[in-house]
Each structure stands twice: as C-alpha cells, then as structure tokens.
Specification:
With about 80 residues, this protein is mainly β. It has one helix and five strands.
Length: about 80
C-alpha cells in the first residue's frame, strides 16, 4: 500500500532494539550496521486513493541511516 505522511508522527514508542528485532540481519545487510530500533507511532496519512485518515505506523530506524521500511499497521478511523 502506497501512502504519504501528511502530519507529524506522535505517540512514538520503541517496540524492539538490536538483537530483539526479527529482521536485524536483513537490515544490517541491506542498510549497514547501526543501532537499529523498531518503532511505532500515529500520524495522518494520504492513501493512494486520495483518502486522508489516521493510521498506526511501524518502521525501523538507526542513527545516521534514518527511517526505513515504514508501513501502515492499521487504520484508526
């Protein structure tokens, strides 16, 4: 699903860090070593259809590398 984030991400929580991330080997191989964290937060997004809604987002992030593999986990409205 393609989407665009149109607001600031709020209520950011850390779900896992380093070795507790299932895909840690793939992240390190694809993007490089770093202090990888899996996070979740809530933001307004514009879906491919043009509809705007609030969604729970999950992504991976490492210092110096940035956010990667962002996905919508569920729509909130």
């Amino acid at each position: 699903m393609y989407f665009e984030i149109i607001s600031e991400i709020v209520n950011i929580e850390i779900l896992a860090v380093g070795g507790n991330i299932r895909d840690i080997m793939r992240l390190r191989r694809q993007y490089g070593p770093g202090r990888w964290r899996k996070l979740k937060g809530i933001a307004d997004v514009r879906l491919e259809s043009g509809r705007i809604c609030r969604a729970e987002l999950h992504w991976y992030e490492a210092h110096g590398i940035g956010r990667r593999k962002m996905k919508i986990k569920r729509l909130l409205d």
